[in-house]
């Protein structure tokens, strides 16, 4: 099944960020520095704005800095490929940023007495972590797991659109977006587990159960 944010769109975004990546590399900026800066920006948007109810500003700031995922990856490719530590740092910072985003959303919804929305945000946080964990664990066991309808970019886009719509007066939009995101995230976990199961069956020596 195709990803929500199609490969062609990702390729188009990569072409946009390539000139920026080249300029940063020429200036001596490392991909790891961009990774950390992007995470700090997401934290500012989520905790400094989103958690205080400034949903439009928060969503725009988070979206802007979340795009550093494409930027640092492009920089790493241009400079000869990602290092082991760079890959580890990128994955770790993604988890920090995601926790801040959904934690901030859950906090703000709690201040509005929207406990259904809080529950949805917590499900999104847990399911999103599982989406990433299943892939990392599969790859650690020597298998691939590049499948799923909703990866990190899709998840942030969905919650960002919901936040912006709620911020401009469409009150139920954020809660609807969160429950939609919870559903597609859980579905993605299932997709990835099924994909890994099929690979494991193929790799299993004959005669073993």
Automatic annotation (TrEMBL):
It holds the Pfam family CDP-OH_P_transf. Keywords: Cell membrane, Lipid biosynthesis, Lipid metabolism, Magnesium, Membrane, Metal-binding, Phospholipid biosynthesis, Phospholipid metabolism, Transferase, Transmembrane, Transmembrane helix. It is a multi-pass membrane protein. A CDP-1,2-diacyl-sn-glycerol binds at residues 32-35, 73, 77, 83. Contains a di-nuclear catalytic Mg(2+) center. Pathway: Lipid metabolism; Phospholipid metabolism; phosphatidylinositol phosphate biosynthesis. Mg(2+) 2 binds at residues 69, 90, 94. It catalyses: a CDP-1,2-diacyl-sn-glycerol + 1D-myo-inositol 3-phosphate = a 1,2-diacyl-sn-glycero-3-phospho-(1D-myo-inositol-3-phosphate) + CMP + H(+); 1,2-di-(9Z-octadecenoyl)-sn-glycero-3-cytidine-5'-diphosphate + 1D-myo-inositol 3-phosphate = 1,2-di-(9Z-octadecenoyl)-sn-glycero-3-phospho-(1D-myo-inositol-3-phosphate) + CMP + H(+). The chain crosses the membrane at residues 23-47, 53-71, 115-134, 176-194. It comes from the Bacteria. The active site is at residue 94. Its main location: membrane. GO terms for cellular component: plasma membrane. Its EC number is 2.7.8.-. Its cofactor is Mg(2+). GO terms for molecular function: magnesium ion binding; phosphotransferase activity, for other substituted phosphate groups. It is found in: Cell membrane. InterPro entries: CDP-OH_P_trans, CDP-OH_PTrfase_TM_dom, CDP_ALCOHOL_P_TRANSF_CS, PIP_synthase_PgsA1. GO terms for biological process: phospholipid biosynthetic process. Mg(2+) 1 binds at residues 69, 72, 90. Belongs to the CDP-alcohol phosphatidyltransferase class-I family. Catalyzes the conjugation of the 1'-hydroxyl group of D-myo-inositol-3-phosphate (also named L-myo-inositol-1-phosphate) with a lipid tail of cytidine diphosphate diacylglycerol (CDP-DAG), forming phosphatidylinositol phosphate (PIP) and CMP. PIP is a precursor of phosphatidylinositol (PI) which is an essential lipid required for cell wall formation. Homodimer. NCBIfam families: PIPSynth. This is Phosphatidylinositol phosphate synthase. It comes from Micromonospora taraxaci.
């Amino acid at each position: 099944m195709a990803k929500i944010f199609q490969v062609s769109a990702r390729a188009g975004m990569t072409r946009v960020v390539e000139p920026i990546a080249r300029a940063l590399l020429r200036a001596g900026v490392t991909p790891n520095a961009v990774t950390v800066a992007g995470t700090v920006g997401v934290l500012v948007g989520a905790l400094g704005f989103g958690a205080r109810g400034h949903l439009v500003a928060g969503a725009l700031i988070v979206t802007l800095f979340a795009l550093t995922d494409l930027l640092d990856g492009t920089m790493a490719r241009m400079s000869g490929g990602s290092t082991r530590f760079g890959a580890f740092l990128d994955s770790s910072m993604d988890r920090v940023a995601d926790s801040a985003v959904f934690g901030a959303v859950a906090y703000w919804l709690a201040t509005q007495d929207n406990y259904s929305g809080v529950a949805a945000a917590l499900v999104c946080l847990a399911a999103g972590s599982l989406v990433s964990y299943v892939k990392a664990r599969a790859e650690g066991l020597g298998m691939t797991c590049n499948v799923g309808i909703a990866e990190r970019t899709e998840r942030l886009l969905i919650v960002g659109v919901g936040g912006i719509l709620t911020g401009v007066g469409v009150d139920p939009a954020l809660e609807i977006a969160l429950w939609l995101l919870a559903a597609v995230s859980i579905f993605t976990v299932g997709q990835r587990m099924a994909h890994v199961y099929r690979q494991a069956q193929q790799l299993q020596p004959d005669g073993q159960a």
